[in-house]
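Class prep. Write one:
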Amino acid sequence: MNLDMVPDLTMRGQDDPHGRAVTPRPPTVGQLAARVGALAARPADWWHLVRFEPGRPVRVPLDGGDGVRLWLTTWPPGHRTDVHDHDGVEVSTVLAGELAEVSISADGVTERPLRANRVRVRGAARTHELTNPGPAYAISLHAGLTSP
């Protein structure tokens, strides 16, 4: 058997061996979720950036790279966002405390608690609001794709 015709499996995931330009693709939702989960597991990389303000949430941008926006949000007790939606997909997790999400759709209004250590995906144009129902601050980590 002539092995010259067999693709070189060692090149998998590397630049094209034939010199063709490789167009970078934005991360998939699964890759965003994996990135959020991995960063959440490394508090030494983000804890020093957390800021607590009693009157409003504090949003701290992180270096995402690769067309990804990453940010931390610190939510004071009792804070509630306005009803809003997002332009694109967003992946998030609660790092500390608890948030509640009220989702609004043609099927009605639902509320669910968002607990720590669960990565969540929100689709584009999904109307919702977030609130911190607890007596303590909550901290969340978010990722989304940057606009082209």
User: Anything to note?
Assistant: The chain has a mean pLDDT of 84.
